[in-house]
Amino acid sequence: MANLKKGSKKLLNAWAFYDWANSVYPLVVTSAVFPLFYGAITVIKDEDGNKVSDTVEFLGLSLNNDSLIGYVTAFSFLIISFMSPILSGISDYVGNKLSFLKFFCYLGGLSCIGLFWFSLDSLLIGVLCYMLALIGFWGSLVFYNSYLPDIAYPEQQDTVSARGFSMGYVGSVLLLLLNLFMILNHEVFGFESEALPTRISFVLVGIWWMSFAQYTFKHLPKGTHDTRKITKKVMMNGFNELNSIWVALGDNLTLKRFLRAFFVYSMAVQTIMLAATYFAVEELEWGTQDPTTGLIVSILLIQLVAMAGALATARLSERFGNIQVLMWILLTWTLICIYAYFVETPNQFYFTAACVGLVMGGIQSLSRSTYSKLLPLNTEDSASYFSFYDVSEKIGIVLGMSMYGYVADVTGSMRGSILFFIAFFIIGLFLLNKVRIGNLSNDSSV
C-alpha cells in the first residue's frame, strides 16, 4: 500500500492513535494498578492489617520494597538516558524507523503481559518484565515523536500533538475503569479474590497496547527500505549533537540558568509522580476503606485536575510571564510537600492529590514551552536542544528515584524523602529567580 500524503487527515489520525494505544501503560501500570499489586505482595501484614515486614530478598540482598522499586526504576531510566541519544541518531539516519517503533512497542506490550507472573518466588523475572516494559514505552516514544515532522506540516503539529494527548487520556482512563470494575467485582466474574483480575489487567494492557498500535503501524510511512548500515559513527551522532549543545550553552547564560533550575525541580516532580502511589500504599492508615478504590479514584482525580491546571497555567503565563508563574508553581509544590509530610488519612491524601494535579500538568507544559521560548532565535538545532532537555529530565529521574530508594532503605519509610523534595523545590525556586530574560528570548512575555 502506498504511503499516505503528508498532512492528510487519515495519516494524522493514525499517528495520534498510538497515544490511545500506549497511554494505558503509564496510567494502569506505572501509576495505578501495579503499585497496589506490588505493595500487596511485598508487604506482610498481621490479622489486624498492621504491617509486619516490607523487606524483600533480591539478588542476595535484603531491601525495603520501596527501595527495590526505586532502584529498579532509576536503573531503567539510566538505560533509557544512554539509549535515547543512540536511538535519536539512528532515527535520523535509517530509512525505516517503523521497524524500531514496532520493536519497542512489542517489547513493552509483551513485558506488560509478563507481569502476570510477578511474584516473590520469581522476583527477578518480574522485575525484569517491569524494566523492559518501562524501556519499551520510552524507547518507542523516541521513534513515535520523531515521526511528527514527517507526517504533519509545522502549522499542523501543535494540533495533532494535542489530539494524541487527548486520545491517550480517554483510552487509558477507559481501560483503567474496565480493570477497576473487574477487580472490585471479582465475584461477578467468578474470581475468588482481587489477585487474579489484577494480574489479568497487566495482560489487558499489553494486548491493548500492541493491538491498537496496528492501526498506526498500517498507515505510518514505511520508509525507504534501503540497506544503509548503522555504523558506530551513526550511533554516536546523538551524543555528538548533545555535546554541541553543551558547548553552545556556554554562550547562553539565560538558557543555562533555566536548565539548572529545571534539572533540580524536575527531579522532585518526576520522582513524586512515579512514587506517590507507593507512598499511599505504605504510609496511609486506610482502616476499613478499600485502598484499591481510594487510590485509583485519586489517580483519576489527578488526571482530571491536571488538564484544568495546564489550561489555567497557560492563561496565567500570558498575563504574568512564564518565569513568574513557574516560581509561584514551585512555591505551591513546596507547600504541598510540607503538608504531605504530615498526611496520614485517605481524605488528607485526596486533598493532596487534587493539589498535585493542579500544579502537575502546569509545571510540565510550562517548563517545556519556556525552554522553547528561550532557545536562540532562528536556531536550526531545535531537535538537538530538546534531546538535551529530555536527557536532562531522565537523568534527574535517575538521581531522584535513587535518592528515594536510599532514604526508604535507610529509614524504612518514604516520609524522609519528602524533606529532600522540599529542598529541591526551594533550590529550584532560588535558581529560577536568577533567570534574567535578555535578547535570547523568543517572546518578551517569558
Entry summary:
The protein is mostly helical.
SS elements, strand count: 4
**So, CATH architecture of the largest domain?**
Up-down Bundle
CATH topology description of the largest domain: Growth Hormone, Chain: A
Query: Can you write the helix and strand succession as a string?
Result: HHEEEEHHHHHHHHHHHHH
Helix content: over 70%
Q: What is the SS-derived class? A: mainly alpha
The number of domains is 2
Mean pLDDT: 80
Number of helices: 15
Q: Would you identify the CATH H-level superfamily of the largest domain?
A: MFS general substrate transporter like domains
Largest β-sheet summary = 2 strands, antiparallel
Poorly predicted ranges (pLDDT <50, ≥5 residues)? Answer: 438-445
Strand order of the largest sheet: 1-2
Indicate the proportion of strand residues. Answer: under 5%
**What is the C-level CATH assignment of the largest domain?**
Mainly Alpha
N-end to C-end Cα span: 46 Å
Quaternary organization = single chain
Give a quick set of tags describing it.
2 domains, Growth Hormone, Chain: A, disordered C terminus, 446 residues, two-stranded antiparallel sheet, 4 strands, two-stranded antiparallel ribbon, single chain, 15 helices, globular, mainly alpha
Explained architecture:
The chain is mainly alpha-helical and 446 residues long. It folds into two domains: 7-224, MFS general substrate transporter like domains (Growth Hormone, Chain: A, Up-down Bundle), CATH 1.20.1250; 250-438, MFS general substrate transporter like domains (Growth Hormone, Chain: A, Up-down Bundle), CATH 1.20.1250.20. The chain is built from 15 helices and four strands. The protein has helices at 9-22, 24-42, 65-93, 98-114, 123-146, 148-151, 154-184, 195-219, 232-248, 253-283, 291-320, 322-340, 346-374, 382-411, 415-432, and strands at residues 44-45, 51-53, 55-58, 61-64. A two-stranded antiparallel ribbon has the order 1-2. A two-stranded antiparallel ribbon has the order 3-4. A hairpin with a 2-residue loop joins strand 3 (55-58) and strand 4 (61-64). Helix 4 (98-114) runs antiparallel to helix 5 (123-146). It is globular. 42% of the residues are buried.
